[in-house]
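Sample 1 of the test manifest.
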Amino acid sequence: MKNIEIDEELYQHIASNTQYIGESASSILRRLIKLPTESTADLVVSAEPKIVEETAKEVVETQNSPVALDTNGSVFNYINKEELAMQRGAVGRFLLILAALYRVHNQQFSTVCQIRGRDRLYFAASEAELAASGSSTKPRQIPDSPFWVITNSNTTRKKMMLTEVGRALGYNEQDVEDIRDLL
Amino acid sequence: MKNIEIDEELYQHIASNTQYIGESASSILRRLIKLPTESTADLVVSAEPKIVEETAKEVVETQNSPVALDTNGSVFNYINKEELAMQRGAVGRFLLILAALYRVHNQQFSTVCQIRGRDRLYFAASEAELAASGSSTKPRQIPDSPFWVITNSNTTRKKMMLTEVGRALGYNEQDVEDIRDLL
DNA sequence: GACGGGATCGCCGGGATAATTA
DNA sequence: TCTAATTATCCCGGCGATCCCG
């Protein structure tokens, strides 16, 4: 840990970007600067270190896309466990996980729009599309992304959706499971 | 000037973005965050203590630190029991308790602004902000502080708010409970 | 009166589970 | 018909702000 000195105004600006009570300065700054979560720890429980390496490779080679644009890592680096744990319910975590996935895979992310239910859409580029595909689907925007998800489903289904998203983005089964279990 | 604590990796990242010798942490961060140069003055010369290495002890811990900067005790020393008892209703006590907390934690106090309801703000730096976030929220200024609180809520909710404030300021659960029970 | 406090009641969001369809 | 898959209704807990009381 290091200490840096900053002016009042900047301090206020940073503090005002706190996303959950007790969030550390590092966590806030990383978000503002768009730097991933600290690589070493912070991931607390589960998440094996090796997964990180494997995933990095997987990601880059993933299907037809031009780029994966992210040099150093898997989604797991983009997820702040503290922040996740902080969420009220499954919906908050669900959105946070999807936001992290979007950050890492923004290029291919639109492929998730193919994941859908029998007659409802699950993902789309607008609220209206989702709303039109079913009734009271409770669409929510995936934070910091142009995509929307349906939110009216039980937790089991949300997990299935995450599983499908993980597969669509080219993760191996082990990682897919880990992503699913974040929720 | 304020001090914040950040992890090594982030520190390196910031330092590596220095654009001229002697550039201050604030200046670098403003650029990275894309925030304009400080409005007021302060720009003056270069002679700021830049990135300070190990400002160590004096520094107020940034995140969930147990209390801070006050050598001889916790909030409890800053609360005058008689004055509390003398208040007409819960609102008076509520404000008094918050004022005491502000006195002890003025540095981090702004983090309480993150405590909020479903759609109302609970704390803010101005009456207007609170008023705008809901209707008849009855904002009151926390005495001798630049912060405001919402006052239209039942006692139970005021207690919950105190509980959250205690947590946000890093008190342990026992102290949090004691703070809550002051009301 | 009128003013401030805050209990109470209505509304909203989450998501388990009942209903529906393949 | 029976089962599996999917939808979306509806109950519950939590929050807001109206409105009653001191």
